[in-house]
Amino acid sequence: MAGTTGSSEPAVVLFDGVCNLCSSTVNFIIDRDPRGRFRFGSLQSPEARPYLERCGLSSDYLEGIVLIEGGRCFTRSTAVLRIARRLAWPWWFGALLLVVPRPIRDLVYGWVAARRYRWFGHHDSCRLPTPELASRFLPRRTDSPHPRPVPAQR
Fold first, then answer.
1. How would residue 149 be classed by pLDDT, with cut points 50, 70 and 90?
2. Which tens digits make up the pLDDT trace of 72-101?
3. pLDDT tens per residue, range 24-53
4. What string of H, E and C letters represents the secondary structure of 21-66?
5. Which residues of 105-118 are buried (b: 16+ CB within 10 A; e: fewer)?
């Protein structure tokens, strides 16, 4: 049984497109999301800018993952755990860590995020989806209508 959020609308995951850990995380999500509940976009892409703006984040935000779900924005550990909640068993079980106080979760998240390039490396350019996965990524135009998320919550 897959985890749910009560919404069938695809959630949007914005990630650091040059980070190897982040790209691997996107691959992990795609492999465990056969129903296509997520769309993806690089934080560095023009397609991400309207989402970042609507979330109250700067256009150069690279502090970590951003999840736009049900019109709301989530960052850092909360974003990761809410993503886990939408994945199939056993991964949705990880969402139980939401009971851990956010400052503690975000401390661990920040510690890993600050070292991600050193530990996992990075690319010189952002990931481009394969033709088979192109529909899972944000469209290449900025005039498409997007839900109006509320400011980011950690």
1. very low
2. 999 999 999 899 888 877 877 777 778 788
3. 889 889 888 888 889 999 998 899 999 999
4. HHHHHHHHHHHCCCCCCEEEEECCCHHHHHHHHHCCCCCCCCCCCE
5. bbeebeeebeebee
With beta carbons less than 8 A apart as the criterion, state whether 105 and 77 touch: yes
- pTM of this prediction? 0.77
Phi and psi at residue 52, to the nearest 5°:
-60, -45
For residue 90, give both structure tokens. Answer: 């056993």
Q: How far is CA 39 from the centre of its chain?
A: 9
Q: How far apart are CA 75 and CA 66, in angstroms?
A: 5
